Recover the amino acids of this structure.
DNA sequence: CTGAAAGCGCTTACAG
DNA sequence: CTGAAAGCGCTTACAG
């Protein structure tokens, strides 16, 4: 916007607080713009001590705030880290406590390093492309992208990226995830030990190489080792894990399997909690009639009655590892890709009961 | 970054996908940069139809993405809407399902209008000042700011702002909130009808003119009309509503009041759910021993056993009203400040029991 | 309908 | 240690 005579005129009445620029500070300090810039950016070895002090003082009294858009344009990159979260139209992916808490931790850590967090709820590949480029983001963090999307994403931009909860065959991928296979295995083994032989698996669709697929494999492999097979009708697939009506329907389905099924592994605490409540409403008690194991160890797993036995993962660690890896790659462009797989463990609470080997009694 | 001979040289090996600019497109289309700019920005009445089509085609095949930092610098404002969320150091304010779901809805609606959402977890006033200015944000949405902060925030910048869940005496304030007073009153009235006379109020601190204070007032006024007073020890204050240990301590406190208290109004479902689970663990049954009313009507209120009677508020409406008000003020700068207070209602479920007027029996 | 000029507020690269 | 020049990719304001 040019500073024409009439914009000045209007400002007289509008009382817009004037924007302070490097130039203003330079004039006031009787130095060049570059010297002020050096002070602002901490290149103090390029400025004499006295001048630096004086300039710092003026910067403070004038409440100078750097114009991030100008800086980004000149440097060809910004201090923005784009966070890409898959969103299904009409749903709210942040109503998942897992996603929400993870995002919160990520943003906090990003801010700690001085980055700005721009959140993009993405539905299409075009969304990703646009968001990745338009703000010259310094780096990007992806949540829950699928294998087949990752290669495409890589070709879109060469800024450092970290993928959370993604499996991929792409080499040189920086990623943070958990041992989903083990999580599934742990649940299966625990059910087995407690005498369960007829078990259900409840989850969103197990897309190729997805988190869910790995949990399912760990679960199936372990059951198989114990000569148990999971029949097709014991596999409940929820198209949405946040839509109440979808979850409710699955609860009814499981309720109808009473007697034929003694236990169910539900791949999130959020869903598992709905199952506990929902089953109770239909007269089925957890764990007396059906035992349940959840996933995540979110606060909600302690708010149900009975409290949920669940697979624990460390969310805040997942978040900080992701940001730390990104930060290393941003600081030193030659830094290699890093991947971290966090461990999981089973937290024993009250939603699983021991039954006789005939699959009926306590 | 200047395009010197050696940066070109390096690029030869780096294979950075080249950034396409207006200039590149202009050259390819044999028109001036301005004509391309007009097409990109939809000022089609300034361009002949044939040229427009041709340029559009080139834009597409070249995957042109506008450089938002350059645009923002030239226009003196960006398409970013800053979302300010109060955060307490060491806690994660997004682990509150209410905040998380609200944020998700806001971001979705912001994206619908073509804005970018930058999330700022703010701890100090300096955080707000910096975040408000540095990106030339087009507008800002504040969550849960207190009365005494709002005036200061106003003086920081004159971009359009909308406050969610804030009470303030500042005139010309655009805000969206709910009828907190009524929410408190509804809970008190319901307890009264069900025969409860000795009631507790559980919440975070009731800062001056805060959401909590208004709920408390509605609650107290209603009890008073029925000649009931809430004694000081029946007022449980939680310094944090997300820290499990803090909530746990409050649960113990309420448990110790068994017999002296027959009901408790807990100002969020999240906390209320912890109370239901926590009390059960100490052998106190809800609602038989203590009745509970929550607030928000979040999914969790249906996942507890018993399901929570709660005060419902419409989160997605709160979010879209906030964004819509902001959008109107952005489109037409002369648009007046708007405030909306959403209604609340009591959702009756199973966490409150009727007791005899002597305060003991069913 | 089209375009050349100046400017947004900063940084890089270089000369003193 | 300091600063004048050129440039980042766009827009505004204006002349044709």
């Amino acid at each position: 916007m040019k500073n024409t005579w009439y914009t000045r005129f209007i400002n007289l009445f509008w009382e817009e607080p004037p924007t302070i620029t490097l130039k203003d500070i330079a004039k006031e300090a009787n130095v060049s713009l570059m010297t002020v810039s050096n002070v602002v950016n901490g290149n103090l070895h390029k400025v004499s001590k006295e001048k630096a002090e004086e300039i710092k003082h003026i910067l403070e009294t004038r409440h100078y705030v750097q114009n991030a858009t100008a800086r980004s344009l000149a440097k060809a990159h910004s201090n923005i880290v784009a966070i890409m979260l898959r969103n299904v139209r009409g749903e709210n992916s942040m109503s998942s406590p897992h996603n929400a808490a993870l995002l919160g931790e990520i943003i906090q850590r990003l801010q700690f390093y001085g980055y700005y967090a721009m959140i993009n709820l993405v539905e299409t590949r075009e969304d990703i492309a646009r968001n990745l480029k338009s703000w010259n983001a310094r780096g990007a963090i992806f949540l829950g992208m699928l294998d087949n999307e990752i290669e495409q994403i890589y070709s879109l931009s060469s800024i450092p990226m970290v993928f959370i909860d993604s499996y991929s065959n792409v080499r040189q991928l920086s990623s943070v995830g958990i041992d989903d296979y083990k999580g599934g295995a742990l649940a299966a083994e625990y059910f087995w030990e407690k005498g369960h032989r007829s078990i259900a698996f409840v989850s969103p669709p197990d897309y190729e190489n997805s988190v869910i697929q790995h949990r399912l494999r760990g679960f199936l492999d372990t059951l198989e080792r114990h000569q148990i097979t999971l029949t097709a009708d014991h596999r409940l697939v929820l198209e949405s894990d946040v839509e109440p009506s979808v979850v409710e329907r699955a609860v009814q389905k499981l309720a109808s399997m009473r007697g034929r099924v003694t236990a169910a592994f539900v791949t999130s605490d959020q869903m598992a909690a709905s199952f506990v409540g929902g089953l109770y409403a239909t007269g089925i008690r957890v764990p007396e009639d059906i035992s349940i194991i959840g996933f995540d160890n979110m606060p909600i797993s302690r708010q149900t009655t009975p409290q949920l036995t669940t697979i624990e993962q460390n969310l805040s660690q997942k978040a900080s590892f992701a940001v730390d890896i990104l930060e290393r790659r941003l600081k030193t462009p030659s830094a290699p890709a890093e991947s971290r797989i966090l461990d999981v463990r089973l937290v024993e609470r009250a939603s699983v009961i021991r039954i006789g080997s005939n699959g009926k009694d306590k």
In short: Residues 255 and 279 of chain B are 6 Å apart (CA to CA). Residues 315-331 of chain B form the longest helix (17 residues). Residues 1-3, 19, 21-23, 33-34, 37, 41, 66-76 of chain B lie near DNA strand D (CB under 10 Å from a C1').
